[in-house]
Write a structure and sequence with these properties.
about 450 residues; alpha/beta; Rossmann fold; 3 domains; 14 helices; about 35% helix; globular
Length: about 450
């Protein structure tokens, strides 16, 4: 099947072809005809399967006829994060370039005044996060009584972020006669309740079992010490040994995102950070740098795990094992997209074993251990040998303490003892009034 078989207009087909696509994905093959027929759609598909085009294409087809009124959008698309909202807007621009549709992106971190000026002119498509939409509604700047089409994207992520009460309120503000397109990677009970309440006899489309991983992704685990600094050593050596061209590195906590990013930058890696506490302009600038290759490694919280379509990501590395098994699927789904090969590594300590077991149970896939022969000189942290010593001992300073000006004292990481590999040796603690630097 090709896009020509989906009864799309010539203008829309031309835009799809110019975007480089010819054959629809399984979710697109089923969702687009159902949406064009006027039915509500409940789409369940794993990340990276083309869900965004499944609703943008039929919406552009419908909205090409008619005209928007001031403050009364004809279509509302709800997304859980600012980044996903920006990505959906890019899809509308790409596929709707042959149509004269107006669009507004209402997200946090952007001036209310600029957004209100767009609303006053009238927009066909409103792409929003739930909180910002309700802010504008309560200020009287947007009316939802003229909504003809309603889209909820990444609904299970909305549930995780606590947006379900907002979504229910928004649904009640829109006309009963609207057409609703509802997409989610999984169907927890709360999401099932909402679809039963607000969708009218929907066409249910499920193209993959929830929490499955596409077969284009090779998955490995690397057993690591639990000590945070040692994990950073492993990460840096992994990036070098594997010659990772680009990759997304996921951490469970926002503060760890900053620490890991600074550590990579200190050791010469082109890395950038993205998490929810950063200003929106900074987050978007970092994403743009990652997409154009200026930033080689993106260190991220789970804000980047859902929905972001970043092409040609060669590797995903879980610096922390995600505490929820479903998050693992979404994280590694950033690679191996559109039929391309990808690789995912998970750095796992004994303390994270229970989370790893949950992931393997959820996905039905056992993560094989990947063992590396790391180069000894990668971090240039080996002891300097004394040429005068036949046994290759350490250089001694004037006091004979075994320390030299060029090197730091080394000690094995707790739990590994004298058999600690060279690349995991760490400096012994030194008392100092100075603040510690990230390593």
């Amino acid at each position: 099947m090709t896009f020509k078989d989906l009864n799309l207009s010539a203008e829309l087909l031309r835009a799809v072809e110019e975007a480089g696509y010819s054959d629809p994905t399984p979710i697109q093959q089923q969702a687009i005809p159902a949406a064009l027929s006027g039915r509500d759609v409940l789409g369940i598909a794993q990340t990276g399967t083309g869900k965004t085009a499944s609703f943008t294409l039929p919406l552009i087809e419908f909205l090409s006829q008619g005209r928007a009124k001031a403050r009364m959008p004809r279509c509302v698309i709800l997304t859980p994060t600012r980044e996903l909202a920006a990505q959906v807007s890019e899809s509308f621009e790409k596929y709707g370039k042959n149509h004269k549709l107006t669009m507004a992106l209402l997200i946090g971190g952007v001036s209310f005044e600029d957004q209100e000026r767009l609303l006053d002119r009238g927009v066909d498509v409103l792409i929003v996060t739930p909180g910002r939409l309700l802010d504008h509604f309560e200020r009287g700047r947007v009316l939802l009584s003229g909504v003809q089409f309603m889209v909820v994207d990444e609904a299970d992520r909305m549930l995780d972020m606590g947006f379900i009460p907002d979504i229910e309120r928004i649904f009640k503000l829109t006309p009963f006669t609207r057409q609703t397109l509802f997409f989610s990677a999984t169907m927890p009970p709360e999401i099932d309740r909402i679809t039963s309440t607000f969708l009218q006899n929907p066409v249910r489309i499920e193209v993959a079992r929830p929490s499955t991983v596409v077969d284009t992704i090779t998955q490995w685990r690397i057993d690591c010490p639990k000590e945070f600094k040692a994990k950073r050593d492993v990460l840096r050596n992994l990036l070098r040994e594997e010659n990772v061209s680009n990759g997304i590195i996921f951490c469970n906590r926002k503060k760890d995102v900053d620490i890991v990013c600074k550590s990579l930058q200190k050791h010469g890696f082109a890395a950038g950070a993205i998490h929810g506490d950063l200003d929106q302009s900074v987050r978007m600038a970092t994403l743009d740098q990652f997409k154009d290759g200026t930033c080689q490694y993106l260190v991220a919280s789970d804000v980047a795990a859902r929905g972001l379509d970043i092409p040609d990501v060669s590797h995903v590395i879980n610096f922390d094992v995600p505490t929820h098994a479903e998050d693992y699927v979404h994280r590694i789904g950033r690679t191996g997209r559109a039929g391309k090969q990808g690789c995912a590594y998970t750095l796992s300590s004994k303390a994270e074993a229970k989370y790893l077991e949950a992931i393997e149970k959820e996905t039905g896939h056992r993560l094989e251990e990947k063992k590396f022969e790391f180069s000894k000189q990668l971090d240039q942290r080996e002891e300097t040998e004394d040429p005068s010593s036949k046994g290759g001992g350490k250089k001694r300073n004037k006091r004979g303490s075994g320390r030299s000006k060029e090197t730091e004292p080394r000690e094995p990481i707790v739990g590994l003892g004298e058999h600690t590999p060279a690349f995991l040796l760490r400096p012994a603690p030194v008392s100092s009034s100075k603040s510690k630097k990230v390593a």
